[in-house]
Amino acid sequence: MARPPSQFPQFSSVADVSKRLSTAGYLPDAQIATTVFLADRLGKPLLVEGPAGTGKTELAKALATATGSELIRLQCYEGLDEARALYEWNYKKQLLRIQASQGTDGADWDTVHDDIFGEEFLLSRPLLTAIRRAEPTVLLIDETDKADVEVEGLLLEVLSDFQVTIPELGTITAARRPMVVLTSNATRELSEALKRRCLYLALDYPSAEREREIVLSRVPDLAPGLAEQLVRTVRAMRALELKKSPSISETLDWAQTLLELGLDTLDESAVRSTLGVVLKHASDQDRAAAELRLN
Amino acid sequence: MTGPAVADGGLAGHLDGFVRAIREAGIPVGISQAVDAAEILTVVDLLDREQLRHGLAAVLLQRAAQRPTYDVLFDLWWPLSDRPRTTVESDADGDADGEPGESTLDVPGDDGIDLAARMREQLLQLLLEGNPEALRRFAREAVEMLGRGQPSPSGQSFFSYRVLRALSPDTLVAQLLTGLLAEGDRGGLAEQVARQTIRERLTALRAAIESEVRRRTAAEKGRDKVAKNAVRPLADQVDFLRAQAGDLAELRRAVAPLARRLAVRLSARRRLGREGRLDFRKTVRASLGTGGVPVVTHHRPRKVHKPELVVLCDVSGSVAGFSHFTLMLTQALREHFTGVRAFAFVDTTDEVTRFFRPGADVVDAVSRIGREADVVGFDGHSDYGTAFEVFADRWASAVGPKTSLLVLGDGRTNYRQPGLPVLADLVRRSRSAHWLNPEPQRLWGSGDSAANRYGEVIDMVECRNAAQLAEFVTTL
What we know:
The structure holds 2 protein chains of 2 kinds.
Chain A: H1 14-23, H2 30-42, E1 46-49, H3 56-67, E2 70-75, H4 82-85, E3 87-89, H5 91-103, H6 109-116, E4 122-124, H7 126-132, E5 137-142, H8 149-161, E6 163-166, E7 170-173, E8 179-184, H9 192-197, E9 199-202, H10 208-218, H11 224-239, H12 248-261, H13 268-278, H14 282-291
Parallel strand pairs in A: 1-8, 1-9, 2-5, 5-8
Antiparallel strand pairs in A: 3-4, 6-7
Helix pairs in contact in A: 1-2, 10-11, 10-12, 12-13
Chain B: H1 11-24, H2 31-43, H3 49-60, H4 67-77, H5 94-97, H6 102-105, H7 112-129, H8 132-146, H9 160-167, H10 173-180, H11 189-221, H12 223-230, H13 245-266, E1 275-278, H14 280-287, E2 299-301, E3 308-314, H15 320-336, E4 340-345, E5 349-351, H16 362-372, H17 384-394, E6 403-408, H18 420-429, E7 432-437, H19 451-457, E8 459-462, H20 466-475
Helix pairs in contact in B: 1-4, 2-3, 4-12, 7-8, 8-9, 8-11, 10-11, 11-12, 13-15, 13-20, 17-18
InterPro entries (chain A): AAA+_ATPase (IPR003593), ATPase_dyneun-rel_AAA (IPR011704), CbbQ/NirQ/NorQ/GpvN (IPR050764), P-loop_NTPase (IPR027417)
Protein name (chain A): MoxR-like ATPase
Domain AAA+ ATPase (chain A): 42-209
């Protein structure tokens, strides 16, 4: 099974990945850095799975920034089809073209036919766009688990050969392989075949140290002591049985909120008045208030 | 096998053994993945163990739940060497590890108790600082010094319980709280947060000790033996009936998305034939842009018929673990699916839908059902016959041609009459009906189980763990 060698590796080592992602504002741990490095080296798509708010989409964005690539995003949803993911013909424009030719000298059908299935009438959707680009590209296929099973079949074809066949135009092969990141919340098991073609990265909430670093790098004005307190409180909340555990972005929002309010310590009253920033369900708020003894 | 050019039985052979062990632990690894694993060896820095760990995980694993098992096996197959590392060790806390054992043991007149006491002090300090790396190093040292069992002909054994007994980390909690909290912080938020932090660090310590014991045992007795005992079942294969508190949290994570999927599945029929009747007006309007040719047709959205779901669950003691899961499932269904009515029964039935209004808390709902719902009429032993009869009697209109019926229970009737005709009638009246049974299929029909007889009138599925639930949901 010879796989074409990955073209243009972007990173020289795992340490390089860490450094450049950090510069792009994403602090990776050893697991993330290693897996990203391998995805780049082996030219394989990277499947990132984990609960909402652990930084899956962020990773793709940071990757684009770190490698100076353009980010092309395919947001999956139930009912996503080929026409939305790959390409479709611009019927309206084609029709106008036909009508226009009828009016004038009446060009013969063959010319018109060749004409209306040309580039001009092709609406390129994210997958095709990513494949045709000659510049560095990061292709983000977001929330893959939301799409129907048929879309997975389509992805399989595109991701294993990086080519798309359009009957009227022929096969379009990637001039330069995009880096592909698929994300999934694991609400549905993706097919074995798709998983086999990808490198797998299970993301969970970060460790306390890493989360503190993330907070401090994103909200640099926050006092380190307060950041520590904040992260520990968020972790205590995640340990409760909540319907929606606070995500990293909510930790960051909270840090920002505390900063704006000029609070310098996270005591009961501070938490109580800002709880809505981290917990978005009334029942979660009640539960946290009871278990963390806010009253 | 392609891979690094190493003599047969060398690195490639070792990797092969590792892959086999992973397969034996229940993680499916295909041939192409094994080949990819070999390729990983050529790309990562082999001297960096963590790189190797994460690199192999990236190609060998396909689900997050497999990771703990993988980590245990990885530690066995790619162990740390016994020698204390000489590089990078001479930094600030080098003295914690520099010469493990000797310096402490050499003190004259030292006995076990004294040693344990001193290690406890050190542990207290480390737990306060919370540096995971230092804690792991301490665990290795502690196993070396406190974990030895009686030497036997088959070699030296190590036991984590010996270490934990000597150190009794749980008794340090009070001191740790004092250390982490300023005075005046007691009783409120700060204390709860500190307690959680301590809990996390103690768990990490225990895991480190266990992993070190495994490593040493593997070195003494061979890793295959250890691998067999050390590997816990994957989270989604934990039996609902035997799940422990720790598993339940894992399960809950696994079940919540499944329930949502199940709700969609049970109501999915309407999605087929997505396009409804032609919307003539809209289509003509749109055709103006294309010179009167209706290129794009528009359709009226289909009338969404509200499917109804009735969940009937056994909440008796014999299925305690399962009923917790059951109610979890019910709650999740209720949240994603408006037409859900939930009924619970032991020896009589009561509607419990009200406890599961969206936003309610499962744990809270479960305890309220225990207190407020009228599910025990006689002696608190399950009585399916009476339960079904009461249900069919009092809520006759709940099941109709639009209803999906979901029964959750083990079908153990305590030798009372099973109420088959009533159930058969309910099944006939419903649009579809399924029974999820948490008992292994081979036990159906044994003793007081009427599962086989129920199976004749309703589609009964074995559903012992999250993996099976997932399968049921996908094949539905």
